[in-house]
Design brief:
about 450 residues; Rossmann fold; N-(1-d-carboxylethyl)-l-norvaline Dehydrogenase, domain 2; 3 domains; 6-stranded parallel beta sheet; 17 helices; about 40% helix; binds uridine-5'-diphosphate-xylopyranose; 6-PGluconate_DH-like_C_sf; NAD binding; UDP-glucose 6-dehydrogenase activity
């Protein structure tokens, strides 16, 4: 099939590359010249395991091309995917200026073309309910008739994006057109060979599905975070409680890990957008307000513990940090708890020294008060008063504990991701704080 993908950000680049891998011809469009040049020169602009090999293979086979020429892309494709940013507005709602802007340009181009070829315009960006209708209206205003708009939300996780795209749990397609359903089904069938469903629904249901899935997961994490805080007060171990709960097949084991709050480009933004839309339609989902509020507090839970340990005074204390990215296997810093933690530590007069295997360059854009960025895992520990673990990178899971002890001023660890066994840490002689489990070594 002939496809174009408008927007070569995270979703666009992964989708375009994976569609090409299935044998489709994909034209990726972007108006950011710097990014475009990099892509044309064979440089993958995001960090995503497995992407690079597919990217090069499909460029070589000439199934994947990059351009800033929207007209060329529209004229040479049957399905047009909108993979545009929908940033959070000041009031929490999703800002649709990019989606609507491109929809207008597509309208103009199709009009110039005398509306002669049938096109499907697919919203892959996370957009609030009603956007399919709004995009349809924009095209209709240009007198275009020979088209359908489809909502096809993307559920990929950073770090597993290629895997998720190639083997999705489900494909959701929202449309009112039989013809569009048929074509979309044909496009996606190779991706669900193992039997996962292609779910067809009206556009509104599809649009809500994306927000519902992300908000539900955010709520699940938030429940576990509050439960963990409670467990600490009553001598329960949240790890054991989590296993006890997760063994119930109605609950399931995944996404029950407490920590320092969810971050990333999706959960915080989508929770807020759903709060906003539900209020607009006079049907507020009140639960989500609490989810958002609790999550903001949870991001600072380690700082609270740290202050308590040092009798509310961490001025001039050296605090080492392992992990800055909002989760492992990504260099993404968007809404990472580390940003809020470092800002708070700076405010309290601590000296922060950090290491992250991938996110250090990006971190510099998010934290103005520059902490020390180290190129090696053990360097920040040198003479530090405490170590904070903020991202559960695998390389932190089995460290040289003797070396850590010899470098740290105190053998003191605050682990926001529960990566170590409490019994083991006690045996090794650390004072070890974690989330929802007793403090050992005090
Ligand atoms: C998420 C959704 O999973 C994906 O389907 C959607 O398309 C985009 O948003 P992503 O943002 O890549 O993906 O991250 P994810 O792995 O879902 O983690 C989100 C946040 O939740 C992270 O900050 C992570 O640390 C936190 N988390 C996750 C927990 O705190 N506990 C858990 O058990 C799981």
């Amino acid at each position: 099939m002939k496809l174009s993908v408008i927007g070569t950000g995270y979703v666009g680049l992964v989708s375009g590359t994976c569609f090409a891998e299935m044998g489709n011809h994909v034209i990726c469009v972007d108006n950011n010249q710097q990014k475009l040049n990099a892509l044309k020169n064979g440089q993958v602009t995001i960090y995503e395991p497995g992407l690079e090999i597919l990217f090069h293979r499909n460029i070589e086979k000439q199934r994947l091309t990059f351009t800033d020429d929207l007209k060329f892309a529209i004229q040479n494709s049957d399905i047009i995917f909108l993979c545009l940013p929908t940033p959070q507005d000041e009031d929490g709602s999703a800002d649709l200026k990019y989606v609507f802007g491109v929809a207008k340009n597509i309208g103009k181009i199709l009009k110039e073309n005398n509306d002669k070829d049938y096109k499907i315009i697919v919203n892959k960006s996370t957009v609030p309910v009603g956007t399919s209708k709004a995009v349809t209206n924009i095209l209709s205003e240009f007198g275009i008739k020979n088209f359908d708009v489809v909502s096809n939300p993307e559920f990929l996780r950073e770090g597993f994006a290629v895997e998720d795209f190639m083997k999705p749990d489900r494909i959701v397609i929202g449309s009112n057109s039989k013809k569009a359903f048929e074509i979309m089904r044909e496009l996606y069938e190779p991706f669900v060979r193992q039997g996962n469903p292609i779910l067809e629904m009206n556009p509104e249901s599809s649009e809500v599905t994306k927000y519902a899935a992300n908000s539900y997961l955010a709520m699940r994490i938030t429940f576990m975070n509050e439960l963990a805080n409670f467990c600490e007060k009553v001598s329960a171990n949240v790890d054991l409680v989590r296993k006890g709960m997760g063994a119930d097949s109605r609950i399931g084991k995944r996404f029950l890990f407490p920590g320092i709050g969810y971050g990333g480009s999706c959960f915080p933004k989508d929770v807020n957008a759903l709060i906003k839309t539900s209020e607009e339609f006079n049907s507020p989902i009140k639960l989500l307000k609490v989810v958002d509020e609790v999550n903001r507090q949870q991001k600072l839970v380690l700082v609270k513990k740290l202050l308590q340990h040092f009798n509310n005074d961490i001025k001039n204390k050296k605090i080492a940090i392992w992990g800055l990215a909002f989760k492992p296997n990504t260099d993404d810093m968007r809404e990472a708890p580390s940003i809020y933690i470092i800002k708070e530590l700076n405010k309290l007069g601590a000296k922060v020294s950090t290491y992250d295997p991938a996110a250090m360059e990006n971190a510099k854009f998010y934290v103005d008060e520059i902490p020390e960025y180290c190129n090696e895992q053990y360097e920040p520990l040198n003479n530090a008063d405490a170590l904070l673990i903020l991202t559960e990178w695998n390389e932190f899971r089995n460290p040289d504990f003797d070396k850590m002890k010899s470098l740290l001023k105190n053998p003191l660890i605050f682990d926001g991701r529960n990566i170590f066994d409490i019994e083991k840490m006690e045996e090794l002689g650390f004072i070890y704080y974690s989330i929802g489990r007793k403090v050992v070594g005090l």
